[in-house]
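Lab channel / #folding
Pinned by the channel admin:
"Please post every new chain as: sequence first, then the structure tokens as a reply. Keep commentary short and put observations after the output so the thread stays searchable."

First post following the new format, from NK:
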Amino acid sequence: MTTPILLFAAGLGTRMGALTKTMPKPLVKVAGKPLIDHALAFTQISAVGNKVVNVHYCADQMHAHLAGRGIAISDETDLLRDTGGGLRHALPLLGASPTLTMNTDAVWRGPNPIETVLNAWHDDMEALLLVVEKRNVHGHLGKGDFRLGAENRLHRAPDMIYTGVQMIRTETIDHIDDLSFSLNLAWNDIATRGGLYGVKYDGQWCDVGQPSSIPVAEAMLHV
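Reply from TO:
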């Protein structure tokens, strides 16, 4: 049995400044390769099924870049839906629950992050988020997102960083009516039921959120 994956690539990338004036952020290159290709490389495992990428800004460039690669496109050119709305919009293409989601604005050095999540998943989970200790984080400006508690349940706290990879039961967003919303809304609901879990990533992770992060990411990849 395989698990589908949605790769988030519809954002405006405004923090990238001039780099995203004429191209979408997922096509910004790190170590000579577009960010989205760094992410897609981790999906080349037998456990991953349908691959879907959502697009909005400079969508024609994304269509051209992904053409002929067996990747379905969830087109959001009519409305930027954020992560939760983007997941809901892509459900017909994903075709199964639970599903993986992955941000495309980070690079990794170490184990395959998707395999880490898949190996840690068990059936009583509603969502499983991949988190990383701050000592293994590069280029990230945030204070922290979660604390790993008993039985690896997640709680809001400025301890560990969410890496942008998760597995989630898509029915957990059924009750949210908004067309555009963050998956943070679903996570908060799931946490109140005790169904929000975390798994720690043991490698290095770099958030490529602004131009200054690109050389940091390249240095991390070549250590």
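NK: Residues 56 and 79 are 8 Å apart (CA to CA).
TO: also worth noting, The chain has six helices and 14 strands.
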